[in-house]
Amino acid sequence: MKLTFLKEAKVVAAVVLAVGIALGGWFVRSGVVAVAERGRNVTVKGLAVRVVDADQVYWPIVFKEVGNDLPALHKRINTVSDIIVKFLKEGGLTDDEISINAPQVRDCIADPYYDTKTDRYNISNTITVSSKQVDKVRKLMQRQGELLSQGVAIIASDYQNYVRFEYTGLGDIKSTLMDEAIANARVTANQFATVSGSTLGGITEASQGQISIEDLDSTTPYRKQIRLVTTITYALHD
């Protein structure tokens, strides 16, 4: 009787152990599956690109006069300003698009490196064109050599005074670009899901998108390339 009881106890213990191992394995497997399910997603980038024409131009026209007679130089700088303004207006620009800055006078004697052989005064001035008539301004820029025949020499642009072409209509196309970038991201995600034998789910995370506006190339700064990149994470299902 005692021997039978011991055998039965061992059998029960073995069954309990087997069940425990099975349950333990089930919990472990459930945990791995849950982690795997939480990690089953794909992050992709969507790109949208547009090439547009600039709709705003800033053109600083810099000129200067040098000499020793300050009143005469001041008169000459005003005469040159009038010549340039007339040139711009004849090219189709208006007063609202033309801004004349105050002349800047440099007294070379005040310069410790002054050379007595040079003229004492150096007067420079800037007329700034700010216009949305980009094509007209570009044509005027191509014709600025005509001013030489009137004794007007325009100083080459430097890091402080350079022509800038800008595109200000981003707000009008931003939503379209975003839609296109999202659509392209979904195409990529669908391809990944197909290859991995999964079904693409909904969006679990997304960024607003990074936008850049750059010159199309160095020779056509009036042509702009707009790039919008968005990052989206999709869920994946078996």
Topology:
Layout (H helix, E strand, L loop, with lengths): L1 H37 L2 E13 L2 E12 L2 H21 L7 E3 L3 E4 L13 E11 L2 H10 L20 E3 L3 H26 L3 E8 L3 E6 L7 E15 L1
Antiparallel strand pairs: 1-9, 2-5, 2-6, 3-5, 4-5, 7-9, 8-9
Can you give me a brief rundown of this structure?
The protein is α+β, with helices and mostly antiparallel strands.
Anisotropy-based shape: elongated
Strand content: 25-35%
- Give the helix/strand class: alpha+beta
Q: What share of residues is helical? A: 25-40%
Number of helices: 4
Q: Could you describe the largest sheet, including whether it forms a barrel?
A: 5 strands, antiparallel
* End-to-end distance: 56 Å
Would you identify the regions where 5 or more consecutive residues have pLDDT less than 50? 1-38
Helix-strand topology string: HEEHEEEHEHEEE
Radius of gyration: 37 Å
Number of strands: 9
What is the residue-averaged pLDDT? 83
List keywords for this structure.
disordered N terminus; 238 residues; alpha+beta; elongated
Describe this structure in words.
It is a single chain. The chain has 238 residues and is of the alpha+beta class. Helices cover 39% and strands 32% of the residues. It is built from four helices and nine strands. The chain has helices spanning 2-38, 70-90, 134-143, 170-195; strands at 41-53, 56-67, 98-100, 104-107, 121-131, 164-166, 199-206, 210-215, 223-237. The strands form two sheets. Strands 2, 3, 4, 5 and 6 form a five-stranded antiparallel β-sheet that branches. Strands 1, 7, 8 and 9 form a four-stranded antiparallel β-sheet that branches. Strand 8 and strand 9 form a beta hairpin. The longest helix has 37 residues, at 2-38. The radius of gyration is 37 Å and the shape is elongated. The two termini are 56 Å apart. The relative contact order is 0.20. Residues 1-38 have low confidence and may be disordered.
